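S., here's the first fold you wanted:
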Amino acid sequence: MSAQRDEDFLSRGRAARRFAVLAVLVAVLLGGALVAVFATRDAAAPSGSRTAPPGRAEPTPVESAPAGPFRLVQGARTEHGVPVGYPHSLAGAVSAAVHYWAQIASTLDARRAAEIAGAVADPSWRDAARELAEGPAQTRKALGLPAKGATGADVLLTPAAYQVRNATADSVTVLVLGYYQTTLPDGDVDTRIGVYPAQMRWVAGDWKMPRPTLSDDFADLRAAPGSDEAAALGWKPLSE
């Protein structure tokens, strides 16, 4: 009976940690600068169909988005281990947003987050290193992990689909749909679906992230990647 109570307690603790990190990421992921909206269902979400939410304008890219899975463009070089140097095109902007988010959301190391900021941030975003470094700190706290040093835990974002908004020749908002996986020291793994917005700007010969000013909550665009629901909401699949 005692063993059952202990197991129930541990289960409640794991659920509480998941809820806590969900709440933190929704409200202040990466120091409140970039918002990722996580679903409350697991990644194996049921497929279905629904129309796009009212008030969501269709993307207006300066070039047509490719039909079928979008093959990511690779950066021409790396900075701090981050691929950079993308072409001045919609494909370049989408690829940069996807690769940048995959780096930003996949670390629990504040120093690493600050390095990533040095590679992806628009020069006008002067506090990028400090603000992005706050993300891992907030996530560690939400997961009940030590504030510094090794944790035995891991976080990983796997982008799976995208949309674009308000595209011009030198700026575009890219929405990335992906799986966010947390692995705790006890081996407990949790995977959820998130929407990650990136306002991209062409500056100094590359696509960079200015300090985000988006006020939209993209929760109504959550859907299982590859599902009928995702397609109905305008998500286009990604391919390496």
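And the second, which I think is the more interesting of the pair:
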Amino acid sequence: MVLIDETAPVALIRENLDVNERGFDPSAAPVTYEQAAAFRREMVGARAVTVRAAGEPVAAGMALPVWSGVAELVGITTLPTARRRGFGRLVTVTLIEAAATLGADLIILSTSDDDARRLYTSVGFRHEPMS
């Protein structure tokens, strides 16, 4: 597992972003060095995580900077070939811990995916339908 902040090498940020893109769209174009370098400059106060299995990145996600005690988890995904093996849970729990370390009293996320909702509920999130 790789925990990433704004001081991480661009190569690690690129890997994280690439897994994130391909987790949501398997046909997504690879993330470029330039895109990762630009994203790195915007990561101040955020944390990202990449999970590797057998040396290959398989899952990723991010905790946005804490604002007024609240942090949002975003972009949690697992590559299609690695799903249902606990990697999404590992990303989620790691990001919860990272956000709490950064001072979050409340951690939120949203999803429209039923499988993701079950996973998030199983680690302690409550489902509150949008009104």
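Why I say that: The mean pLDDT is 94. The longest strand covers residues 70-78.

Talk tomorrow,
H.
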